[in-house]
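Pilot study result, target chain (601 residues):
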Amino acid sequence: MSLKNIGKNKVYNGKRFMDKIIVAYLISVFTIGTVLPIVPSDPASFYSLSSQEQAPSGNQPPVFGTPTPANGSVNNPISLTWNISISDPESNQLLWTIQCSNGQKNIGCGQTNGTKSLSLSGLAFSTTYKVWVNATDPTGSGLYTRRWYTFTTKTNLVNNPPMFGASSPANGSTGNLLSLSWSIPINDPEGDQFSWSIQCSNGQTNNATGASNGTKSLSLSGLAFSTTYKVWVNATDPTGSNQYTRRWYTFTTRENSPPVFGISSPANGSTGNLLSLSWSIPINDPEGNTFSWTIQCSNRQVNSGTGDINGTKSLSLSGLAYSTIYKVWVNATDPTGSGLYTRKWYTFTTKQLPPMKVIITKPLENTLYIQNQQRRSLSTDTIIYGPITIIANVTSEISIARVEFYIDGRLKDNITTAPYTYLWNPIIQFHGFSLKHTIKVIAYDILGNHASAELNVTKWRFHPLPFIIAGVGVASTFGIASTFFKHTTVTGLFFDVQQSRVTTSFYALRIHYWTTGLFKNFGGAINFKSCTGGAIIGPILSLRTGSRHNIMYGTFTFLGDIQYTSGSFRQKTTTPLSTTTLRDMFQNLKLLKQQNSRKPC
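Predicted structure:
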């Protein structure tokens, strides 16, 4: 009897049919370990939508519910889960099989009542698929239920290719980093899996297959500055008959800036700088790239570095000249930025040469010296009795070439090495009739610069020859007479005073004199007489007037006795002028001298 001709709800109790079910059951158990539905080799001979059930009396076969998707439904997705409710009326455990005409199937053994399913994927568009379902109750002596169902997938016109979102970085963007992650969202409208690839014009690429919707990316590194790159993106949907989307995008990397210079030290254009210094300047690359640098001064000193990092770079300078403008060239090159560089020059000026100083440390101003020894301070004037060592102190930052000593404008000595001294010890020196002399010292350095110092002094015109002849020595201080040879001091009003190396002559208008000898001292007054005497040996304090400055009021000392014309009036006295009288006379002479300097005759 054919299974095909068995009506719905009829029970076939023949022994031959039961044997076939048992054989099929045993084959399924012992061949694959599970119970498979008995599916004819020709699905058309299975049975139609009308159910075929085997049900011995007292035990019912499994019962099928409504499948999902519904039997005969259309426009189904190409990936879905097909399921159906299978229940045994006696709640016996059952064996079940669900098999689709695309070859995908699912089975269960010793299952309880519930929904059974089959996951389907890779279905073709616009295709009708058949699903066979078998449920067997081994407890009920192999009672079973078999049915088949159909469904149709959606048409191909509904499937769309993958879609691209906005890229990051944005298409056409500029100023991008040299290392970045380029990404773009890729989504399939039907949720189909797809393959994709992203490739950059620098040769770096990334791809995947069987991908789902989401953002896809490509890591890029080692990009060049100021360069435009192109990125190609492809996404293909194999399920949609290889529908694909292809596009390309561009982005540009940022520009590379050259190194930047800070403020130099010493500052550009500064003056008064030392002759030895460290010239420095901050150099920084905006991108933090290493760089090479050079600092060179116009005095040819230089410093440089390669592969250096941001920071202050310096050049040690020494041996600079005074009052000189120096130029410093600075160069910094960034090899990473295709040799981008910054070049600038700066100037600075060294300090001026300190002025050379010359100081006459001996004799000192307003001081009395006797026989080259400092005796006492004076309120005014510098008085020297006997020889004197002139000492000059010269200070200069340039080597001294020579130091010249002048007396009254005449060069006396030229000293080239320190100490700078000159012994002023004239045998006999005349400077008109005045005891005033000018000491001048001029110092020269090796560059030709010079400085000088002057000192006006009163020099006692003393000569040791009379003492050598007399065999005696003389010691004296200004204002105290203590002698051992005959000499005369005259004070008063004189006319036409003349002197030679050994004699003195004058016309005494009104004078006082005092002669000192070894055995006799005397003095007196002389009026309107022509007088003569020996060589002047003592200081002269005088005030001159007249059209030819030949009238003099003052005092001086000469050797020997005073001589005057015979028959003239001479008033003798044995009392010398007192110290007080002499001091008052000298004070008056000084006052006259000061007035004369303010109002010259």
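One observation from the pilot: The radius of gyration is 68 Å. A full batch analysis is planned for the follow-on phase.
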